[in-house]
Design a protein that fits this description.
The complex is a heterodimer of chains A (about 250) and B (about 270). By secondary structure, chain A is an all-alpha fold. Chain A is built from nine helices and no strands. Chain A has one domain. In chain A, helix 4 packs across helix 7, helix 6 crosses helix 7 and helix 6 packs across helix 8. The termini of chain A are far apart. Chain B has about 270 residues and is an alpha/beta fold. Chain B contains ten helices and twelve strands. In chain B, the strands form three sheets. Chain B has a six-stranded mixed sheet, with helices on both faces. A four-stranded antiparallel sheet of chain B has the order 2-1-4-5, covered by helices on one side. Chain B has a two-stranded antiparallel ribbon with strand order 9-10. In chain B, strand 1 and strand 2 form a beta hairpin. In chain B, helix 3 runs parallel beside helix 5 and helix 4 packs across helix 5. Classes of the chains: A mainly alpha (about 250), B alpha/beta (about 270). Chains A and B meet through helix 5 of A and helix 2 and helix 3 of B.
Chain lengths: ~250, ~270
Amino acid sequence: MLDLLKEPVLAVQEFVVLGGSAFRNIFRKPHYLDDVILQMDTIGVGSLVVVVLVGLFSGIVMALQMSRALAQYGEVEKTGTLVAITLARELGPVLTAIMMAGRNSSGIASELGSMKVTEQIDAMRALGTDPIQKLVTPRLEATCFMLPLLTVIADFVGLFGGWVIAVVKLNLTSRLYWNSAWQALEWNDVAQGLLKPLVFAVVVSLMGCFYGLRTTGGTQGVGRSTTQAMVAATIMIFITDVMITEFFVSQGAS
Amino acid sequence: MPETPSPSILRFENVTVSFDGEPVLRDVSFEAFEGESRVILGAAGSGKTVLLKTALGLLRPDSGRVLAFGKDLGAMREAQLFEIRSRIGMLFQESALFDSLSIEQNVAYPLLNQKSIRCPASEVHGRVEEALDFVELGGTLEKFPSELSGGMRRRAGIARAVVTKPPLVLYDSPSAGLDPITAHTIMALLIKERDMAQTTTILVTYRYQDGNLMANFRYNSKQGRLEPARQSGGPLPRTTFMVLREGRLVFEGDQDRLEATADDYISKFCKQRE
């Protein structure tokens, strides 16, 4: 029984150590600015299209679904309110982060995993660089910078999608839609809408790096850690989402 | 043999390394001196690569001590190890070139990243070209590792290992997976590096021919090729053979003793000579 628990406990410990040194390196020299910018491009700019699409469709679907529910109470003009709140609080951060987990956690894991199995990580250490400083920290920084930005973009594109439905299908005026959307958002919503992507960014990048760096067993191992990274990142996104939501809900109630 | 006056460069004292409780190096002790060549023979899985990685401090021994240049690696933190590693060149088994960097950037990597080397930026390009010319890969600066053949990648790996002019170079199976002609070219480069830069060399291999070349040939810089050391009249290169079997050091001595040994496992290596 104890032996069964040993491995997961060791893995958690390894993850905490990795995360700790990745964060510590943010304040330590040398800084690999080139790598940070390169990662911002692959992680951020590279994900833009998919994030815009996800934002747009979730806005459209929310407007369609909510209008039906609201019609029962004769409050169709509140569509903007509901779209804005659901996007800012939940759908924007969570859907964007899940797309990033699928695209970037797995991408990072397969890249670092291939480097691990071809001894490039060892070579890096032999040639005078700390792999955590050179590979993990730039990915952490780039994701923490880009994911909140992408989330904000997804939120706005989603609101735009909702607006198209509101005007074309529900016959609401633009003014009514945007006013209700704008007035619905409180400080609490914006705060959790920006805190969530920051936390998810840590999850997405560190999960990818963690599974990538502990890859063993050749190309097959790379495939395995790619899948594991994506699944683990997605699960962790949901768990941290519940925790942050619970915190803000109790804040809002008091 | 008279007592050697050369300083010790690498010393293993009862080193044991294990993975998941399974020892892969068991109680290995040896000492390599300046200017010496060591050929470590062993079958796949005998712990050859692990031995080299332990010598670099990439792996930590479970027990025993590793001393490089007289300093105990076990007592050092990762940041302190970088200074020692900058004095050791290493060719990894599959070259381990960085895929995302060009050959020029790969070879320049140790010059730019080893803190203790402090190569001025203006000199980097010249030294990279010099190192690539040394391995006869002058025209490939802009290419990426995936565009090169296996033998060329191995040569670029050698250039990256020796560009900082380290006094000790470790080669992990440099001829593995290459055709006989390319393997010979690679070995000629190793001997060229040893004889021209006077480096201490540790060569890990499963091919006895590689060790034989190391022990009996010298690089003739005038003719640009290898020649038998006896022919050139100079002393034979100081070469020690070691044989690893399942993590244990089962033989240490010169070539004559190696060939005279009655042990079945050890003599199997010598029989591949032809």
